[in-house]
Amino acid sequence: MIKAQSIKAISGKVVNQNNEPMMGSALLLSVRDSVIIKQHDFLEGEFQLSNINQKEVLMKLTSVEFADMFLHISYEGKENVNLGSVIISEKNNQLNEVVIKSQAPLLKYAANGTISVNVANTLLATSNSVNELLGRVPNVVVSEGQVSVLGKGEAIIYLNGILINYERFAAIPVSQIASIEVVANPSSKYDAEGKAVINIITKKNIENGIMGSATQQITVSKFAGTSTNTLFDFNYTKGRFSFVTNYGLQLGKGRELLFTTRTRPNPDEYMRSELTTDWKRQFNNYSNFGFGLQYTFSPKSYLSLAYSGNIEDLGGVVASRNLITDNTSSSFYATDIAKNDVLLNQFVNLNYNLITDKKGSSLFLAGQYSDFNGNINDFIEENGVVNNLNTLKYLKNIVGSTTDIITVQADLSKKINEKNKLDAGAKFSYANINSATDFLTSENKEAGFEPDEELSSDFSYEEKIKAVYFSYGRTFSEKLDISIGARGEWTRYNLATTARGNQQFEKSYNNFFPNLLLNFTISDHLKGHFSYVSRITRPRYQALNPYVIYQDPFTTIEGNPNLLPEKVHAFEIGAMFKKFDFKLGYTYKIDAISGAALRGDKPNSYVLRSLNLEKEDSFFASASRSISNKWWNSVNTLSMSVTKVTDNFYEYETGPVKPQIYLYSNNTFTIPNLFKIQLLAWYLGEKSYGLRSDNDRSVVTLGIEKNFFKDALKLNFTANDIFNTFNVSGNYDVGQTEIYYHRTYTMNYFRLVAAYSFGNSKKTTYKKTEIEQSENNRAR
Fold first, then answer.
1. Which of 36, 50, 639, 691 is the most exposed place for a label (fewest CB within 10 A)?
2. CB neighbours (10 Å) of residue 609?
3. Neighbour count for residue 621 (Cβ, 10 Å)
4. Residue 45 DSSP symbol
5. In terms of C-beta distances under 8 Å and separation of at least 24 residues, what long-range contacts does 131-136 make, across chains too?
6. Confidence of residue 256 (pLDDT cuts 50, 70, 90)
7. Half-sphere exposure of residue 273, counting CA atoms within 13 Å on the CB side?
8. Which residues are 414's β-sheet partners?
9. For residues 137 and 130, what is the distance between their CA atoms, to the nearest angstrom?
10. Which residues 6+ apart lie within 8 Å of 370 measured at CB?
């Protein structure tokens, strides 16, 4: 066997001319295009980078305390290269200096199918929220509160490698995000919840002293009105102690408009409902806040404590207009819901990280307590006209809900040697959810309100999940490495509700999730991978709760306590050729979670409810190409998918299966010493998948950005959805009813962003690490 001739690991120690250890970062860059391959932050001079597998690399040693140093390192017979003591100078002297491109690539492709999207200094960084930001990331689709990866399905969100819940995700300041990783083939170390993983990576500040930033956004929309978003971040570090805090406040207006028609064409039971629902939201106080403390014992261990929370104080009006005609009557209902909803979410997180040996093995211990408290106090006024007779009704909807989640986790990563690595871990989570929904009705609000037992209900849910996992990776040669793993999860829950009579459910089930990832290198320009991943999607707690969300007398949204978890098996094969990335995959879902408007108890009533479909088969193929030079960065993606959904329970009418096309292009043009012009466009074509059809939608966004005062002040002006072509619409037939829907969001707007950075920092070591489990993700 011929021994591979490549560098496996590089180590060394950075010192000044007095032989004192320094703090900074060691970066490995590709000789071909200067893309970052590896990075290691060091506190006391020593650094070690492993699993390099390159014949030659560029090393960049950087810190604000010394001038950047560049070293060109080639394979010279030793796989493990020890540079010894590297003496840096505080003067502007650099060895073997090379020119690094002025723009970092917008997109990087990994051999295992993961893509990394640069956010900082791009059009993505002007997003008002993380939700909006993800909608601009290639291969990611955000629709109706769900984040999905094309060809894979719904994704779970991680922050710096740790799973977070939806509320924490929504509270992350976009200004602090450096990049987004889209992990299409997650290993067993990731929670089995979700078919793909999106990892949000925040900016690293390795400086000592004070750093902060203040950002003001103003968004103007003809459709929704004006809103503002104010963000403040502050970091302080001295020695081994670090403190970070942030606060964000969103005020103003938002809007969402839904038009739905439901038609029963059978002459014997003809009915047609034309329903328009207009959410005119008033953000009284949408704020997020938090602080974190960390003490670094040594370069190998630290302890951190974090507290964060967010408040959603929502006002405004939900206006519903429903025209119903059938064989015997014509009726019109105007329902106005004055919203008074307050939600408070709080999280406390404690974790400990330890590097256990010189090879880089690590131990991570973490625990978290999450608390969700919601209060609804809505007033509903309902005016009806039935066969020319007027009716008037008033309702009060009072809801109190609490969700408490406790999670503990331990992860061990053992690097056996340069070719073998073992990861293992365990997790336990406990969730307790309680809610009480009361409806009070009156035909004359001055005469008082009476309880409506049919609409009111109580709900309680208790769940325990135990999980263990392992993942073993082995490098056979510089051309082949393999990773195999498995995750076992044991779930037990109790559910009780008074909706539709007293109901109680108790269930336990076990799941086993194997996965396999194979990476292979054919040549310097051609690399490939093959993966198999099995996952699960448990229903969100709200989807299980059969309490009533009232829209009008004939339209409600209700949970489904009989909802089952969705199980997924996904296969993918991919290749990277130069700057092209190709993927081909197949996904099979059992008990696929979907939703539909089903006929209710009353003749003309409908209930919007989550449900399980029998199965789903999906094939996809994609090709991507990146372009990067001094004045132009561009990412371009073309994908095609074919999906077929099968069900034999809910009386869906089957239709054709047609492929869906996805196009994406993100471009940044830099005019040196002047400004940047940013252009983003994507198109998601029509989709027909057996039981439903979705119409196409697209967005074109244009922005211009300029920096002032040595980059301390940044101004950006953005025009989003210029042609006003983004909406979510489609149709399906179920239970002898033809349903069409058209939903419009606040996407067509102009936004001005001003961001100012300040401070006198020199170096910091705080790493905001937190643990949140998929149970939190389902608390919405």
1. 36
2. 18
3. 15
4. S
5. 131/169, 131/170, 133/174, 133/177, 133/180, 134/180, 134/198, 135/699, 136/666, 136/680, 136/682, 136/701
6. very high
7. 27
8. 422
9. 11
10. 165, 345, 346, 347, 403, 404, 405, 406, 407, 772, 776, 779
Q: Are 362 and 413 in contact (CB under 8 A)?
A: yes
Q: How many other C-beta atoms can be found within 10 angstroms of the C-beta atom of residue 120?
A: 13
Q: Which tens digits make up the pLDDT trace of 130-161?
A: 878 888 888 888 876 678 887 787 788 887 76
Say what the pTM is. 0.79
Q: Which two tokens stand for residue 370?
A: 């999450």
The single-letter code of the amino acid at 35 is V
What is the layout of strands, in order, in the sheet containing 56-63? 36-42, 24-29, 56-63, 66-74
Instruction: Please tell me what DSSP assigns to residue 631.
Output: S
User: Burial of 52 by CB count in 10 Å (0-12 exposed, 13-18 middle, 19+ buried)?
Assistant: buried
SS (H, E, C) 682-744: EEECCEEECCEEECCEEEEEEEEEEEECCCCEEEEEEEECCCCCCCEEEEEEECCEEEEEEEE
Tell me the backbone φ, ψ of residue 139, rounded to 5 degrees: 70, 5
SS3 content of the chain, % helix, strand, coil (to 5): 5, 65, 30
Q: Give the per-residue pLDDT at 770.
A: 39
137: Cα within 13 Å, side-chain hemisphere:
29
The helix/strand/coil state of 776 is helix
Q: What is the DSSP string of 185-207?
A: S--TTS-SBSSEEEEEEEPP---
Q: Minimal CA–CA distance to 518: which of 543, 553, 484, 565?
A: 484
310 forms beta bridges with 288, 345
Residues linked to residue 453 through DSSP beta bridges, in sequence order:
none
The tens digit of pLDDT for each residue in 362-411 reads 899 989 898 999 999 999 999 988 888 888 999 999 999 999 999 998 99
pLDDT digits (tens, 9 = 90+) for 593-644: 888 999 888 888 899 999 999 999 999 999 998 887 778 888 899 999 999 9
Q: Are 541 and 461 in contact (CB under 8 A)?
A: yes
Token pair belonging to 397: 């909807």
The phi-psi region of residue 591 (left if phi > 0; otherwise alpha if psi is between -120 and 50; otherwise beta) is left
pLDDT in tens, 524-548: 788 899 999 998 888 888 788 888 8
Q: At 619, list the tokens.
A: 């094939």
Q: Per-residue pLDDT tens for 273-298?
A: 999 999 999 999 999 888 889 898 88
Q: Is residue 574 scored above 50 in pLDDT?
A: yes
SS (H, E, C) 154-167: EEEEEECCEECCHH
In this structure, are residues 7 and 52 in contact, taking their beta carbons and an 8 Å threshold? Answer: yes
Interacting residues of 224 by C-beta distance below 8 A, sequence separation 6+? 253, 254, 255, 746, 749
